Amino acid sequence: MSELENFFSRCRRSVDKTLDELLPDEQTEPMRLHEAIRWSLFGGGKRFRPALVVAVGSSFGASEEKLLRTAAAIEMIHTYSLIHDDLPAMDNDDLRRGRPTCHKKFDEATAILTGDVLQTLAFQAIAEDERLDTRIRVKLILEISRAAGTPAGMVAGQQLDLEAEGKGVLIEELERIHHRKTGAIITVSARAGAIIAEADSKELEEITRFAAHLGLLFQITDDLLDVTQTTKVLGKTAGKDASAEKATYPAIYGLKQAQILAENIHGQARETLNKIDKPTKVLGELADFILNRKT
Ligand code: GRG
User: Fold this and answer.
1) C-alpha angle with apex 180: 149 to 256, nearest 5 degrees?
2) Are 94 and 237 in contact (CB under 8 A)?
3) Could you give the dihedral angle defined by the CA atoms of residues 140, 48, 68 and 200, in that order, rounded to the nearest 10 degrees?
4) Domain span at residue 134?
5) What is the reported pTM?
6) What is the CATH number of the domain that holds 239?
7) Averaged pLDDT score across all residues of the chain
8) How many domains does the chain have?
9) Which run of H or of E encompasses 170?
10) 219 alpha carbon to ligand 1 midpoint, in Å?
11) Ligand 1 pocket by C-beta < 6 Å: which residues?
Protein backbone atom coordinates (compact mmCIF):
# COMPACT_ATOMS: atom_id res chain seq x y z
CA MET A 1 0.00 0.00 0.00
CA SER A 2 1.38 3.48 -0.91
CA GLU A 3 1.73 6.19 1.74
CA LEU A 4 -1.32 7.99 0.34
CA GLU A 5 -3.43 4.81 0.30
CA ASN A 6 -2.43 4.32 3.93
CA PHE A 7 -3.44 7.88 4.75
CA PHE A 8 -6.81 7.48 2.96
CA SER A 9 -7.55 4.22 4.68
CA ARG A 10 -6.69 5.56 8.19
CA CYS A 11 -8.67 8.71 7.47
CA ARG A 12 -11.72 6.78 6.22
CA ARG A 13 -11.74 4.65 9.40
CA SER A 14 -11.54 7.69 11.71
CA VAL A 15 -14.10 9.73 9.75
CA ASP A 16 -16.55 6.82 9.57
CA LYS A 17 -16.19 6.22 13.32
CA THR A 18 -16.86 9.93 13.96
CA LEU A 19 -19.90 9.84 11.65
CA ASP A 20 -21.19 6.77 13.44
CA GLU A 21 -20.91 8.55 16.80
CA LEU A 22 -22.63 11.68 15.50
CA LEU A 23 -25.60 10.00 13.77
CA PRO A 24 -28.73 8.63 15.48
CA ASP A 25 -28.79 4.83 15.27
CA GLU A 26 -31.27 2.93 13.09
CA GLN A 27 -33.40 1.96 16.11
CA THR A 28 -34.10 5.60 17.00
CA GLU A 29 -37.47 6.96 15.80
CA PRO A 30 -38.10 7.90 13.01
CA MET A 31 -36.26 4.73 12.03
CA ARG A 32 -36.82 5.09 8.27
CA LEU A 33 -35.07 8.49 8.28
CA HIS A 34 -32.11 7.18 10.27
CA GLU A 35 -31.82 4.08 8.07
CA ALA A 36 -31.77 6.34 4.99
CA ILE A 37 -29.06 8.57 6.49
CA ARG A 38 -26.84 5.57 7.20
CA TRP A 39 -27.61 3.95 3.82
CA SER A 40 -26.45 7.09 2.06
CA LEU A 41 -23.38 7.82 4.18
CA PHE A 42 -21.96 4.33 4.66
CA GLY A 43 -22.51 3.11 1.09
CA GLY A 44 -19.02 3.88 -0.20
CA GLY A 45 -17.63 7.17 -1.45
CA LYS A 46 -14.01 8.23 -1.63
CA ARG A 47 -14.11 10.53 1.45
CA PHE A 48 -11.94 12.97 -0.49
CA ARG A 49 -13.24 16.13 1.21
CA PRO A 50 -12.73 14.88 4.79
CA ALA A 51 -9.28 13.61 3.75
CA LEU A 52 -8.49 17.13 2.55
CA VAL A 53 -9.60 18.64 5.89
CA VAL A 54 -7.35 16.20 7.75
CA ALA A 55 -4.40 16.50 5.34
CA VAL A 56 -4.35 20.32 5.38
CA GLY A 57 -5.01 20.54 9.12
CA SER A 58 -2.23 18.04 9.87
CA SER A 59 0.21 19.87 7.57
CA PHE A 60 -0.46 23.04 9.54
CA GLY A 61 -0.04 21.27 12.88
CA ALA A 62 -3.59 20.56 14.15
CA SER A 63 -4.25 17.29 16.00
CA GLU A 64 -6.45 14.77 14.22
CA GLU A 65 -9.02 14.79 17.01
CA LYS A 66 -9.64 18.51 16.46
CA LEU A 67 -10.16 17.94 12.72
CA LEU A 68 -12.44 14.90 12.66
CA ARG A 69 -15.84 16.40 13.47
CA THR A 70 -15.47 19.12 10.87
CA ALA A 71 -14.25 16.54 8.36
CA ALA A 72 -17.32 14.39 9.11
CA ALA A 73 -19.62 17.44 8.91
CA ILE A 74 -18.34 18.30 5.42
CA GLU A 75 -18.90 14.69 4.31
CA MET A 76 -22.51 15.00 5.58
CA ILE A 77 -23.04 18.13 3.49
CA HIS A 78 -21.47 16.49 0.44
CA THR A 79 -23.67 13.40 0.87
CA TYR A 80 -26.80 15.56 1.24
CA SER A 81 -25.92 17.25 -2.06
CA LEU A 82 -25.55 13.87 -3.80
CA ILE A 83 -28.93 12.66 -2.45
CA HIS A 84 -30.71 15.80 -3.66
CA ASP A 85 -28.82 15.82 -6.97
CA ASP A 86 -30.06 12.26 -7.67
CA LEU A 87 -33.75 13.16 -7.15
CA PRO A 88 -36.15 12.97 -10.13
CA ALA A 89 -36.48 16.79 -10.08
CA MET A 90 -32.74 17.11 -10.69
CA ASP A 91 -30.52 14.40 -12.23
CA ASN A 92 -33.04 11.57 -11.74
CA ASP A 93 -30.47 8.87 -11.09
CA ASP A 94 -30.99 5.30 -9.87
CA LEU A 95 -27.42 4.49 -8.89
CA ARG A 96 -24.99 6.16 -6.48
CA ARG A 97 -21.85 4.77 -4.86
CA GLY A 98 -22.63 1.43 -6.50
CA ARG A 99 -26.07 1.09 -4.88
CA PRO A 100 -29.64 2.29 -5.46
CA THR A 101 -29.96 6.03 -4.78
CA CYS A 102 -31.66 7.12 -1.55
CA HIS A 103 -35.03 7.88 -3.22
CA LYS A 104 -34.97 4.50 -5.04
CA LYS A 105 -34.13 2.51 -1.90
CA PHE A 106 -36.58 4.47 0.28
CA ASP A 107 -38.87 7.08 -1.37
CA GLU A 108 -38.66 10.67 -2.59
CA ALA A 109 -40.00 12.33 0.54
CA THR A 110 -37.56 10.38 2.73
CA ALA A 111 -34.67 11.29 0.41
CA ILE A 112 -35.53 15.01 0.58
CA LEU A 113 -35.72 14.87 4.37
CA THR A 114 -32.50 12.83 4.60
CA GLY A 115 -30.65 15.52 2.66
CA ASP A 116 -32.23 18.28 4.74
CA VAL A 117 -31.31 16.71 8.04
CA LEU A 118 -27.75 15.80 7.00
CA GLN A 119 -27.21 19.50 6.46
CA THR A 120 -28.55 20.49 9.89
CA LEU A 121 -26.66 17.64 11.61
CA ALA A 122 -23.44 18.88 9.99
CA PHE A 123 -23.73 22.36 11.46
CA GLN A 124 -24.87 20.94 14.80
CA ALA A 125 -21.75 18.71 14.91
CA ILE A 126 -19.46 21.73 14.53
CA ALA A 127 -21.45 23.94 16.93
CA GLU A 128 -21.18 21.22 19.61
CA ASP A 129 -17.49 20.40 19.05
CA GLU A 130 -16.00 21.18 22.44
CA ARG A 131 -12.47 20.45 21.25
CA LEU A 132 -12.62 23.72 19.31
CA ASP A 133 -12.63 27.25 20.64
CA THR A 134 -16.05 28.95 20.15
CA ARG A 135 -14.45 31.58 17.88
CA ILE A 136 -13.17 28.81 15.56
CA ARG A 137 -16.54 27.03 15.54
CA VAL A 138 -18.33 30.22 14.45
CA LYS A 139 -15.75 30.86 11.73
CA LEU A 140 -16.14 27.29 10.42
CA ILE A 141 -19.94 27.49 10.44
CA LEU A 142 -19.83 30.81 8.58
CA GLU A 143 -17.38 29.61 5.92
CA ILE A 144 -19.07 26.24 5.38
CA SER A 145 -22.56 27.77 5.16
CA ARG A 146 -21.31 30.25 2.56
CA ALA A 147 -19.65 27.44 0.58
CA ALA A 148 -22.76 25.25 0.71
CA GLY A 149 -25.24 28.02 -0.04
CA THR A 150 -25.69 31.11 -2.19
CA PRO A 151 -24.67 33.36 -3.98
CA ALA A 152 -21.15 31.91 -4.26
CA GLY A 153 -21.71 28.37 -3.00
CA MET A 154 -22.84 24.91 -4.05
CA VAL A 155 -26.61 25.48 -4.21
CA ALA A 156 -26.10 28.56 -6.39
CA GLY A 157 -23.83 26.49 -8.67
CA GLN A 158 -26.41 23.72 -8.92
CA GLN A 159 -29.12 26.23 -9.90
CA LEU A 160 -26.87 27.80 -12.56
CA ASP A 161 -25.99 24.31 -13.83
CA LEU A 162 -29.65 23.32 -14.19
CA GLU A 163 -30.40 26.58 -16.02
CA ALA A 164 -27.47 26.01 -18.41
CA GLU A 165 -28.60 22.53 -19.60
CA GLY A 166 -29.00 22.38 -23.36
CA LYS A 167 -27.81 25.98 -23.82
CA GLY A 168 -24.20 25.47 -24.97
CA VAL A 169 -22.53 27.78 -22.43
CA LEU A 170 -19.13 29.41 -22.90
CA ILE A 171 -16.04 28.42 -20.93
CA GLU A 172 -16.27 31.47 -18.60
CA GLU A 173 -19.80 30.49 -17.61
CA LEU A 174 -18.75 26.85 -17.16
CA GLU A 175 -16.02 27.97 -14.75
CA ARG A 176 -18.45 30.22 -12.85
CA ILE A 177 -20.77 27.22 -12.39
CA HIS A 178 -18.10 24.74 -11.32
CA HIS A 179 -16.34 27.18 -9.03
CA ARG A 180 -19.60 27.19 -7.05
CA LYS A 181 -21.03 23.71 -7.56
CA THR A 182 -17.87 21.66 -6.99
CA GLY A 183 -15.07 24.08 -6.09
CA ALA A 184 -16.63 25.84 -3.09
CA ILE A 185 -16.95 22.73 -0.90
CA ILE A 186 -13.48 21.49 -1.88
CA THR A 187 -11.97 24.90 -1.11
CA VAL A 188 -13.72 25.17 2.24
CA SER A 189 -12.52 21.66 3.16
CA ALA A 190 -8.93 22.81 2.79
CA ARG A 191 -9.59 26.15 4.50
CA ALA A 192 -11.36 24.42 7.40
CA GLY A 193 -8.26 22.33 8.11
CA ALA A 194 -6.12 25.47 8.07
CA ILE A 195 -8.61 27.44 10.23
CA ILE A 196 -8.64 24.68 12.87
CA ALA A 197 -4.82 24.74 12.84
CA GLU A 198 -5.01 28.54 13.31
CA ALA A 199 -3.00 29.23 10.14
CA ASP A 200 -2.24 32.93 9.53
CA SER A 201 -3.89 34.93 6.75
CA LYS A 202 -0.99 34.51 4.31
CA GLU A 203 -1.06 30.72 4.79
CA LEU A 204 -4.84 30.69 4.37
CA GLU A 205 -4.44 32.58 1.10
CA GLU A 206 -1.92 30.05 -0.24
CA ILE A 207 -3.97 27.03 0.78
CA THR A 208 -7.05 28.61 -0.82
CA ARG A 209 -5.12 28.99 -4.08
CA PHE A 210 -4.05 25.33 -3.92
CA ALA A 211 -7.63 24.20 -3.19
CA ALA A 212 -9.07 26.29 -6.02
CA HIS A 213 -6.80 24.44 -8.48
CA LEU A 214 -7.75 21.15 -6.86
CA GLY A 215 -11.48 21.95 -7.20
CA LEU A 216 -11.13 22.73 -10.89
CA LEU A 217 -9.00 19.61 -11.42
CA PHE A 218 -11.65 17.54 -9.63
CA GLN A 219 -14.38 18.84 -11.95
CA ILE A 220 -12.38 18.27 -15.15
CA THR A 221 -11.54 14.70 -14.12
CA ASP A 222 -15.18 14.17 -13.14
CA ASP A 223 -16.25 15.25 -16.65
CA LEU A 224 -13.57 13.01 -18.22
CA LEU A 225 -14.61 9.98 -16.16
CA ASP A 226 -18.24 10.47 -17.18
CA VAL A 227 -17.13 9.94 -20.79
CA THR A 228 -14.37 7.38 -20.36
CA GLN A 229 -15.52 5.07 -17.56
CA THR A 230 -18.29 2.51 -17.25
CA THR A 231 -21.27 2.69 -14.92
CA LYS A 232 -19.92 -0.40 -13.10
CA VAL A 233 -16.55 1.21 -12.33
CA LEU A 234 -18.03 4.60 -11.40
CA GLY A 235 -20.85 3.21 -9.24
CA LYS A 236 -23.08 5.89 -10.81
CA THR A 237 -24.59 6.19 -14.28
CA ALA A 238 -21.87 6.99 -16.84
CA GLY A 239 -22.52 9.19 -19.88
CA LYS A 240 -25.16 11.31 -18.11
CA ASP A 241 -23.58 14.66 -19.03
CA ALA A 242 -23.97 14.14 -22.78
CA SER A 243 -27.52 12.85 -22.49
CA ALA A 244 -28.50 15.86 -20.33
CA GLU A 245 -26.70 18.16 -22.84
CA LYS A 246 -24.49 19.49 -20.06
CA ALA A 247 -21.64 21.84 -20.76
CA THR A 248 -18.50 19.91 -19.78
CA TYR A 249 -14.75 20.25 -20.38
CA PRO A 250 -14.57 17.34 -22.88
CA ALA A 251 -17.66 18.71 -24.67
CA ILE A 252 -16.06 22.15 -25.07
CA TYR A 253 -12.38 21.20 -25.57
CA GLY A 254 -12.53 17.60 -26.78
CA LEU A 255 -11.17 14.63 -24.82
CA LYS A 256 -7.46 15.10 -25.54
CA GLN A 257 -7.40 18.85 -24.79
CA ALA A 258 -9.44 18.37 -21.61
CA GLN A 259 -6.88 15.79 -20.45
CA ILE A 260 -4.03 18.25 -21.19
CA LEU A 261 -5.90 20.98 -19.31
CA ALA A 262 -6.23 18.64 -16.30
CA GLU A 263 -2.47 18.00 -16.38
CA ASN A 264 -1.75 21.75 -16.51
CA ILE A 265 -4.04 22.53 -13.60
CA HIS A 266 -2.46 19.67 -11.64
CA GLY A 267 0.98 21.23 -12.28
CA GLN A 268 -0.29 24.63 -11.07
CA ALA A 269 -1.77 23.04 -7.93
CA ARG A 270 1.58 21.42 -7.12
CA GLU A 271 3.40 24.71 -7.79
CA THR A 272 1.31 26.59 -5.22
CA LEU A 273 2.53 24.12 -2.58
CA ASN A 274 6.10 25.39 -3.05
CA LYS A 275 5.02 28.65 -1.41
CA ILE A 276 3.81 26.91 1.73
CA ASP A 277 6.51 26.47 4.34
CA LYS A 278 4.98 23.35 5.91
CA PRO A 279 5.16 19.59 5.24
CA THR A 280 2.94 19.34 2.15
CA LYS A 281 3.92 15.92 0.73
CA VAL A 282 0.46 14.42 1.32
CA LEU A 283 -1.20 17.47 -0.26
CA GLY A 284 0.87 17.00 -3.42
CA GLU A 285 -0.08 13.33 -3.48
CA LEU A 286 -3.75 14.26 -3.09
CA ALA A 287 -3.43 16.38 -6.24
CA ASP A 288 -1.84 13.37 -8.03
CA PHE A 289 -4.70 11.20 -6.79
CA ILE A 290 -7.31 13.55 -8.28
CA LEU A 291 -5.48 13.70 -11.62
CA ASN A 292 -5.22 9.90 -11.85
CA ARG A 293 -8.45 8.82 -10.19
CA LYS A 294 -10.57 6.12 -11.81
CA THR A 295 -13.81 6.80 -9.89
C1 GRG B 1 -28.33 19.33 -5.00
C2 GRG B 1 -27.59 21.31 -3.62
C3 GRG B 1 -27.28 20.29 -4.61
C4 GRG B 1 -26.04 20.29 -5.13
C5 GRG B 1 -25.59 19.25 -6.03
C6 GRG B 1 -22.97 17.28 -5.74
C7 GRG B 1 -23.62 18.11 -6.74
C8 GRG B 1 -24.15 19.45 -6.34
C9 GRG B 1 -23.86 17.61 -7.96
C10 GRG B 1 -23.45 16.25 -8.33
C11 GRG B 1 -23.12 16.27 -9.76
C12 GRG B 1 -21.67 16.25 -10.00
C13 GRG B 1 -21.17 15.17 -10.86
C14 GRG B 1 -20.85 17.15 -9.48
C15 GRG B 1 -19.41 17.16 -9.77
C16 GRG B 1 -18.50 16.79 -8.69
C17 GRG B 1 -19.01 15.89 -7.66
C18 GRG B 1 -19.62 16.54 -6.49
C19 GRG B 1 -18.83 14.56 -7.80
C20 GRG B 1 -19.14 13.57 -6.76
O21 GRG B 1 -18.17 13.62 -5.74
P22 GRG B 1 -17.21 12.39 -5.42
O23 GRG B 1 -16.65 11.83 -6.69
O24 GRG B 1 -18.26 11.37 -4.81
O25 GRG B 1 -16.23 12.80 -4.38
P26 GRG B 1 -18.04 10.24 -3.69
O27 GRG B 1 -19.20 9.31 -3.90
O28 GRG B 1 -16.71 9.58 -3.92
O29 GRG B 1 -18.11 10.94 -2.37
Assistant:
1) 155
2) yes
3) -50
4) 3-292
5) 0.97
6) 1.10.600.10
7) 96
8) 1
9) none
10) 9
11) 45-46, 48, 78, 81-82, 84-85, 97, 154-155, 158, 181-182, 219, 222
